[in-house]
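Researcher: We plan to redesign the surface later, but first we want a full-length starting point. Tokens attached.
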């Protein structure tokens, strides 16, 4: 509004509507902040009729991990008229945001648009996107996904903030010029999270805020990665100071830094993409993102898998943050479950990063960490073992978990509208009919864009089946490729193919 006034380009009707919206937004915010405090009886077993509300708030904020809400200041409920205004103005502002995005986004080169056509497919080539977007795969992909899931308008993410935030994010990812842990890996993981949510059907279990948290967590999950393992930070302390190990007390050293440094970016109003979230939304998003990113610490793998397995076996209710953490963790280790053309390019990058650490360890007179010795690492065998013991059990668990989550949704037609809306926008069925066509057939394709929830849900079941068979097919194929290398005697780190990653067959 101020900008419009400054350039004297004022449409008074629009200005009036915007002022009304601002007023109702402030009122809604105020009312929101004066909601009665939550119930802590479960946590501390306090009987509400004997303990005053102030004392309950104090106990909850001091002795539980729940977050303290703003205390009640007002008895008033929002007026009906102001709610109507807020809704009307909300729709109007959403339109403004959509317009802002389409005008602020310059036309993408044809190659980028072409690449993004495969966005919903498991064989999406992030390396190609990086090449055609002049090294901005993370920025390009994140904006695309935010728009695709309608999160920019839902959460009123200012386009200028988003652009600046993503520039900073990419800069941070490239700070240490790592062969593997750089912005392309972040783009890959963000894309994979989107695909996992979509292809398992878990997307339909989530609120928009949770989808936003998933994409954001994926995008930031390795921000400012130093190119070393956590153990390197912890155990080199005797010969070389690790600031991060000191700050985070040897616990999830890098992951703690990724999430903390990324949230620091949001402290600047020019990069605060969440400036229009309500306080409860912000608190929920932050808590989810922290849990998800900390869950990418590989030392949590066994515990994470065990906990989810036992939850499924005991028919317990699935905890959303735990499920989403597992999905991010799976995306983080997903390249062996992708076509060889992708897996064979990621592996040498990762190995090169490991070997660079090994070089440093040798230089410091330390023993070289496992898989970090460039002269003596059985790359092929390590990949086969990684797939058998880590990747396959994780993806198997994700498949079981998704079925447990999604099948009950199938009976529930109440949330079908969002499903069919999203599906017709993303053309999910097209992928199912092509890439995984042999597994689910054309039936899946016919479901796209239908208005009835039941028909849309049939597609989800088919897609879940195709998801499981697809990752199994890829890991099997990739293991066979590595086995062939072992047979042919090119399984070690001195194998030029695994060093350059040129094999994209
Ligand atoms: N193909 C692989 N072989 C061995 N380790 C891997 C492979 N892919 C991923 N990882 C490890 O899994 C970790 C997941 O989290 P990061 O991306 O931080 O770092 C990753 C690597 O350390
Ligand atoms: Zn990662």
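Model: Full-length starting sequence:
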């Amino acid at each position: 509004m101020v900008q419009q006034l400054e350039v004297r380009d004022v449409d008074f009707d629009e200005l009036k509507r915007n002022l009304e919206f601002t007023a109702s937004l402030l009122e809604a915010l105020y009312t929101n902040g004066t909601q009665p405090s939550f119930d802590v009886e479960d946590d501390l077993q306090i009987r509400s009729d004997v303990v005053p509300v102030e004392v309950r708030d104090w106990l909850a904020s001091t002795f539980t991990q729940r977050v303290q809400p703003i205390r009640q200041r007002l008895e008033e409920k929002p007026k009906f008229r102001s709610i109507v205004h807020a809704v009307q103005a909300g729709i109007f502002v959403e339109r403004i945001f959509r317009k802002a995005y389409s005008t602020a986004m310059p036309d993408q080169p044809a190659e980028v648009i072409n690449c993004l056509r495969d966005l919903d497919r498991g064989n999406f080539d992030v390396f190609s996107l990086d090449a055609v977007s002049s090294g901005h795969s993370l920025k390009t992909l994140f904006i695309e996904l935010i728009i695709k899931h309608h999160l920019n308008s839902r959460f009123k993410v200012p386009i200028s903030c988003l652009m600046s935030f993503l520039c900073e994010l990419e800069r941070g990812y490239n700070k240490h010029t790592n062969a593997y842990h750089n912005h392309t890996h972040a783009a890959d993981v963000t894309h994979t999270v989107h695909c996992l949510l979509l292809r398992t059907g878990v997307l339909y279990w989530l609120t928009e805020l949770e989808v936003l948290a998933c994409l954001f967590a994926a995008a930031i999950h390795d921000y400012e990665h130093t190119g070393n393992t956590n153990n390197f930070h912890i155990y080199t302390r005797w010969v070389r100071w690790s600031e991060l190990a000191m700050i985070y007390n040897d616990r999830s050293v890098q992951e703690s830094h990724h999430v903390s440094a990324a949230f620091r970016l949001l402290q600047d109003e020019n990069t605060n993409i969440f400036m229009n979230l309500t306080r409860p939304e912000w608190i929920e998003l932050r808590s989810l993102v922290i849990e998800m990113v900390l869950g990418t610490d590989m030392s949590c793998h066994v515990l994470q898998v065990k906990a989810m397995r036992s939850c499924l076996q005991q028919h317990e209710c699935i905890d959303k943050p735990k499920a989403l953490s597992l999905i991010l963790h799976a995306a983080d280790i997903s390249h062996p479950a992708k076509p060889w053309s992708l897996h064979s390019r990621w592996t040498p990058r990762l190995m090169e990063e490991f070997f660079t650490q090994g070089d440093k360890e040798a230089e410091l007179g330390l023993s070289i960490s496992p898989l970090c010795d460039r002269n003596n690492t059985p790359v092929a065998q390590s990949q086969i073992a990684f797939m058998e013991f880590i990747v396959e059990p994780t993806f198997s668990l994700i498949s079981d978990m998704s079925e447990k989550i999604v099948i009950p949704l199938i009976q529930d037609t109440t949330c079908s509208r969002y499903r069919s809306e999203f599906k017709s926008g993303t053309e999910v069925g097209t992928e199912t009919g092509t890439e995984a066509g042999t597994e689910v057939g054309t039936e899946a394709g016919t479901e796209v864009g239908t208005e009835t929830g039941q028909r849309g849900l049939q597609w989800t079941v088919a897609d879940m089946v195709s998801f499981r068979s697809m990752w199994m097919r890829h890991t099997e194929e990739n293991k066979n490729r590595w086995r062939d290398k072992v047979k042919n005697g090119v399984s070690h780190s001195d194998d030029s193919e695994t060093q350059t990653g040129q094999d994209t067959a």
